[in-house]
Structure formats: C-alpha cells, structure tokens
Amino acid sequence: HVAECDYVGIVSANDVPDDYASNEGYSIAEESAKKDDDVQVQQTSKENVKNNIKVAVLYLSDPAEGSGYSYTHDLGIQGMQTNLGLSSEQIVRKVVDDSDSDATRKAIEECIQDGCNIIFATSWGYMETVAQMAEEYPDIYFSHGTGNMSNGKNFNNYFGRIYQSRYLSGIAAG
C-alpha cells in the first residue's frame, strides 16, 4: 500500500502552475511548526515509500526510437522518475502489442514478479486485460492511458489535457 503523504502542497516559486513534466522550480511546502523529531520521522517515512516504489510501463513501440506516442509518454515517465528521485532500477519498460492479450498478460505478470507495484499501460488496447489483472492483483496499482474503465480501487485511467489542443484545432477549423 502507498502511504499517505504529509505534503501540504506543491507550489511554484511564483505560485503559477506550469505544464512541464520536470516541475523545475517547484518545492514541497512542509507543514510549519513541526518538531525536529516529527520532521525526521516524516522524511524517513517518505524515503521508505520512495524506496518501495517500482514502476512498470507497457509501450506499443520502443520509446528509444525517438518519436511518437511511446517516446513522448516516456518523457513523462522520465519526468516522474526525476521528480520522485527514483533510480533506473525502479522503472521497468516493456514493448507489447496491445492487440495480443496473452502477451499483455505475460508482460504484466513478469513485471509483478519483478516487484513492480505500479503499472502504467499506455494504450487503449491494453484496457480489458489490465482491468482483469487489477481484479487478480488488488495490491498492485494499474493506471491505464485513455480508456473508459476503472474499478475505483486499484485501476484508473488517465488522459492528457486534450481540451487545450481541441480548442486550438477548433479555432483553426473555424
């Protein structure tokens, strides 16, 4: 289980949020008036949580090819890794055909056996298999790119800020 964070919030130097994956210029605002012992316990607890995170990412193509959806998604994963201070050993990347549910299942099982406790599946085609796997592995967090399924426990979906590009394409079309 992921422990609850003791963060008050994440703020930028000028209190204006940005859209960068690296979140450069941000700092974690700690609760004020904490005793030194409490701060030490919090830091140790956060460090323990961070050290127990292992993330798997399923891609349609090799992000190292340097373009496309897998590449840009991996830029976000790299930003997450930097922001959380995760080591390279804490990130597992797999290229899997999203139309092959058996290969998807096998890749997820390999990730779980390797100690991954958070799994990102980056394509619509992984959705059904990921939903089934989330039911089989309730202690693993599954996050699915796009899609319309969630179990409200350990399986959710995410999507980018599509409204921004839709707005601009609407202006261009007009």
Structural summary, described in words:
Strands 4-3-5-6-7 form a five-stranded parallel beta sheet, with helices on both faces. It has a two-stranded antiparallel sheet with strand order 1-2. Helix 3 (101-113) crosses helix 4 (127-136). Mean pLDDT is 80; it is low at 1-22 and 26-34. By secondary structure, the chain is α/β, with parallel strands linked by helices. Strand 5, helix 4 and strand 6 form a beta-alpha-beta unit. The protein has five helices and seven strands, in the order ββαβαβαβαββα. The termini are far apart.
Provide the β-strand percentage band: 15-25%
Uncertain stretches: 1-22, 26-34
Give the strand order, joined by hyphens, for the main sheet: 4-3-5-6-7
- The gross shape turns out to be globular
Radius of gyration: 18 Å
What is the assembly state of the chains in this entry?
Answer: single chain
Total helix count? 5
The class by helix and strand makeup works out as: alpha/beta
Helix and strand run: EEHEHEHEHEEH
Task: Please tell me the overall pLDDT.
Answer: 80
* Count of β-strands: 7
Largest sheet: 5 strands, parallel
Distance between the termini: 49 Å
Q: What is the share of helical residues?
A: 25-40%
Show the helix and strand layout.
Blueprint: E1 9-12, E2 26-29, H1 36-51, E3 55-59, H2 68-84, E4 91-95, H3 101-113, E5 118-121, H4 127-136, E6 141-145, E7 155-158, H5 162-173
Parallel strand pairs: 3-4, 3-5, 5-6, 6-7
Antiparallel strand pairs: 1-2
